[in-house]
Specification:
The chain has 228 residues and is mostly beta strands. The chain is 6% helix and 53% strand. The two termini are 24 Å apart.
Length: 228
């Protein structure tokens, strides 16, 4: 069970809130198989209403619920691509038909691009997977075309960015306002702006935006969660 991402809504039309959840299965080797499962509420607990395989080594962009349906956006392999390196964005809609979980529709959205990052701002949750962002310091990123902007924790910042190929990312010189804040905010801000300028690529992991950057001889990641 992948606990970091799920969606709630009425799956079976009984007026009770149910859940769409994601499962990962690995039987050895390089395969990492993603499944979508529907779990409905019944009087004595919950009931498994169905599970359907999504694919091998897919990157999940988002999972959301609509009445009786789940909409999953993800990156998977396109024609001729190796399983290690998917670049094709897909939006699939799932629901129950005759008591079975099925894929109702699928739309290919084209190659992964910066356009998928546009919309509501992203909020920094970690300087790496096991290194959360400091509490009380709000760091955000908003992408509009080839422009990146937001709050660095104290000051507003702005920069140009490029993505020559899917996943590849380069962020130009970063400019910022010059307000002074308490040391904890300034330390987080300086660290964040420095990381942006060494960014090398971006990807999605269970609905989170992940930007890889260089720190000495290692490549940690900035982890962002989409703001509501």
């Amino acid at each position: 069970l992948l606990r970091d991402l799920h969606a709630t809504g009425d799956i079976d039309g009984d007026g009770v809130t149910d859940a769409w959840v994601l499962l990962n299965e690995s039987s050895g080797g390089t395969g990492q198989f993603l499944y979508l499962a529907a779990v409905t509420r019944v009087e004595d607990g919950v009931r498994h209403a169905g599970t359907l395989r999504v694919g091998d080594r897919v990157d999940v962009i988002s999972l959301r619920s609509a009445p009786g349906k789940a909409i999953l956006e993800y990156v998977t392999t396109g024609p001729g691509e190796p399983a290690c390196c998917p670049t094709l964005m897909v939006s699939s809609t799932y629901g129950l038909e005759d008591g079975q979980l099925v894929e109702l529709s699928r739309e290919n959205l084209g190659p992964l691009s910066l356009e998928r990052l546009a919309g509501p701002p992203w909020r920094l949750t970690g300087f790496d997977w096991h290194e959360p962002a400091p509490e009380g310091v709000a760091i955000t990123a908003r992408l509009e075309g080839d422009r990146l902007s937001g709050s660095a924790g104290c000051n507003n910042y702005f920069a140009m960015l490029e993505a020559p190929t899917p996943y590849e990312l380069a962020i130009g010189p970063v400019g910022a306002t010059r307000m002074a804040c308490p040391p904890a905010q300034m330390d987080a801000e300086n660290r964040f702006l420095g990381a942006l300028q060494t960014a090398t690529q971006f990807s999605f992991v269970l609905g989170k935006l992940v930007i890889t950057y260089q720190r000495d001889d290692s490549y940690p990641v900035l982890v962002f969660q989409r703001e509501p």
